[in-house]
């Protein structure tokens, strides 16, 4: 079952159970997927769907941060609940050990020895971590630390 099919199934389940928050989040996901499909004029594959989910997760994390700075605990709680629902549809994230191993392999493959070659190392490390959810900022920070 693809992620899009699972979202559709869970959407109907949430309607039947009258779960307002879950229903709202799932409708948002479905809307984002449909918008991207319309934009590309083709159905999305799993990787593109995961990319959309990662974008939505990132938006929620930024919102939580901003609402926290604005002392809006009610909105922080709402966004946190939405974030948990979104993350349940993402595949498992890469562990620290997996990220370090991918970075080490990428450095040896590219022969990088300075911070100027960071882009090539990040790209190669992402290729090694294909199929896992990887926080790009965390990955680039790790690469920067290894190369400096």
Descriptive labels:
mainly alpha; Arc Repressor Mutant, subunit A; single chain; 2 domains; globular; 148 residues; Hypothetical Protein Yqey, Chain: A, domain1
Indicate the CATH class of the largest domain: Mainly Alpha
Spans of at least 5 consecutive residues whose pLDDT stays below 50 are: none
CATH topology of the largest domain, by name, is Hypothetical Protein Yqey, Chain: A, domain1
Q: How would a crystallographer describe the biggest sheet?
A: none
Report the average pLDDT across residues. 88
Q: Judging by the overall fold, what is the CATH architecture of the largest domain?
A: Orthogonal Bundle
Question: Given the helix and strand composition, which structural class is it?
Answer: mainly alpha
Please bin the fraction of helical residues: over 70%
Can you characterise this structure?
- The protein folds into two domains: 85 residues, Uncharacterised protein YqeY/AIM41, N-terminal domain (Hypothetical Protein Yqey, Chain: A, domain1, Orthogonal Bundle), CATH 1.10.1510.10; 52 residues, Orthogonal Bundle (Arc Repressor Mutant, subunit A), CATH 1.10.10.
- It is built from seven helices and no strands.
- The radius of gyration is 18 Å and the shape is globular.
- The N and C termini lie far apart (43 Å).
